[in-house]
Amino acid sequence: MTRIVPLGQARELPLWRRPVTLLFLMAIAMPLSFATWSALLNNFVIEAAQFDGSDIGWLHTVREIPGFLAIGVILVLLLMREQVLALLALTLLGVATAVTAWFPSMGGLLIVTLLSSIGFHYYETVNQSLQLQWLPKDRAPQMLGWLLAAASGATLIAYVAIVMTWEAFDLSYNFVYMVSGGLTLVITLYCALAFPQFESPNPQRKSFVLRRRYWLYYALQFMSGARRQIFVVFAGFMMVERFGFAVHEVTALYLINLCANMALAPMLGKAVHRFGERRVLLFEYAGLVLVFLAYGGLYWFHWGVVLASVLYVIDHIFFALALALKTYFQKIADPGDIAPTAAVAFTINHIAAVFLPFALGYLWMISPGAVFGLAAGMALVSLSLALMIPRHPSPGYETIFAPRLPPQPAE
Hints:
With about 400 residues, the chain is mainly alpha-helical.
């Protein structure tokens, strides 16, 4: 019978069975599949399925549908606990990643991508909720930074293996996908067997929650999802299509990103703790405006591959600062709202993600620079919204326009 341990008693358990250890193991298991899938994807779809810009746009649109439907997590949580759902979602992600190379066609890739995306997005939804419930507010920014560093470290190992062995041993896409998905499944099985189920002191609402006082958080999530899609879909695709990067070259670029994340993520968490969410997010969005304009310059002014690679790394580092958005919500939220609002926020984050990839895929075929110009405009809107975050947000003081009053009931 599964043992349930109140969160307050978890500190009495040995370190290897505590909630924070489970968070770290899950943070390692997820990118072993997802990051490997992402690293090989652009080369795989071009070589095996002859994708063009429109095709990759449709693939990513399908990939984002489960994110748009992440609000369904609320219904699933009526049947199982968040911790159980997180492990089941990781299992689905691992299995779907392992069999990706079995389906080298448009239809097959759409189906397997949809399945892996369900696992990824449902895991990310409940994982964000568990992080905010299990980590104390005063340590959350630093711990989120360390969790990001752990995920980057696990991915680093996978990428180093790809770079060093892809050509040397003439590896196949099938072999790499099978190994990465299998490792995720092994770690997930260990998590299911080794850890008790932890009971949060604040029971989570199992109903749809949409509060007016969270409006700024919702708006920032929407813009973040729209802006990030352009980077995820087209920045890597550009490196292959325009500059002819091979698998090991793309992976090497990802490796640089991971090394930067491992070194900087803990410091970024400390920066959020020291300077506050407002200043950190303003810095991120201002930087992204410049980065996306420079991306456009790669096409408008025919700048070279070295600058493209540098921009890709800087872009990735800026996105790591998004942990400030999590801690902003943690500071303004009712403790019982964390799980349902995480699901709502994930859906809002993916509204634009459902239609932007395929729509911009057609624009990409006409003017790739215009796609990145649009992304710069989105970053500028995010910058304007971040100006409304208070220096010290709290329940009832969610924006600079809100008086310091007790939080209002749901509307």
